[in-house]
Design a protein that fits this description.
The complex is a heterodimer of chains A (239) and B (127). Chain A is mainly alpha-helical and 239 residues long. Chain A is built from 6 helices and no strands. The longest helix of chain A has 74 residues. Chain A is elongated. The two termini of chain A are 54 Å apart. With 127 residues, chain B is an alpha/beta fold. Helix content of chain B is 46%, strand content 18%. Chain B has a 5-stranded parallel β-sheet with strand order 2-1-3-4-5, with helices on both faces. Classes of the chains: A mainly alpha (239), B alpha/beta (127). At the A-B interface, helix 3, helix 4, helix 5 and helix 6 of A face helix 1, helix 4 and strand 5 of B.
Amino acid sequence: MRAKDFSELLYDSEATLRLVDNAILDMGAIDADRQSSAEQAMRVADSRASSGHGGLGRADSVRGYSEILGVLASLRQSRSVLENSTVGKIQQTHEKLREVSDATETVDTDILNGLERATSMVDILDGYAAEHSEPDDRAAIIRGTLRDELVALVGHLQFQNITSQQLKYASSVLTDIEARLAQIATVFDPSDCGLAPLAQPAATAPIGPVTFDLNASTQNRAERQAKVDEVMMGKKASA
Amino acid sequence: MNILVVDDSATMRRILVNSIYRVGFTECVEAGDGKEGLEKFDASIQFVIADWNMPKMSGLDLARAIRQLPEGNQVPILRVTVRSMKEDIVAAIRAVVNDYIVKPFTLRVLKEKIDAVMSRQGAAALS
């Protein structure tokens, strides 16, 4: 589903819910604090219609029910669109994000293994040079520079931890949207209309404490550290 | 010096341990979350480097728990985290965290922070 389609669906859903509200208000069957619940409205309207009272004229009732039926048809259509595209695609996207996170972690580990082996080799070269009393300062400088480069590369691999947190955050947003869409789509029980129930959100591992942070970023490292240092100094000084 | 490194990311732990060895320390104990970190904390630990967001027990709760222990009252705790909002830093200070490093960190910053914390601890011990 394209973003535009999704916006239109949300707009249509909102419009249909407003129509439900208006139809129910017109019927005068619900008190003010119950207007927000379309399901309650339907039950009260049904009960009043079956018991034969409620103060509405027959023409008003027919018009009200007719509008509600129209709204229901629209909601069923929206539910079908959600089921066929949005929820499925959100689940696919969720899986893709997990796949990317796992793949970067695997590659990160492989690179780390290689860098550790390479650093060990530089250490071996240092030991070899010391054993043989090689007076070549230039070689020692090159080994030192090479080691520094390898250590810096190890440090750069922190990107995986940070991007993984960013992906987990994006995934959590998708999970939330998925659950909300499922709620919207089941406001009216689809089985009442002879439709298949909406696909349940994909089973995910139990969520414990949040282990990612919305503010995880690879950007502006120095500025963020400087800001932290400033706050730490200020707070400690005032403590 | 024996340093306890606590982070739920195995990659991050390896990077931290690599960096710690590189700046001249020789002993590290690793833990994958705050609870494990607390279990591994004992009188031999002279410095703690911990992440914030972790399962089972957060880095902040770990710091508070360590401070409750007789052998953890004075041990330096360095927070290494992606969190850099002011309220996060204030919470860390309240948990009596000694200093704070923002991820991604550089080797230079890690060394500076460890040295600074050790220096302040040494000065406090002498005073």
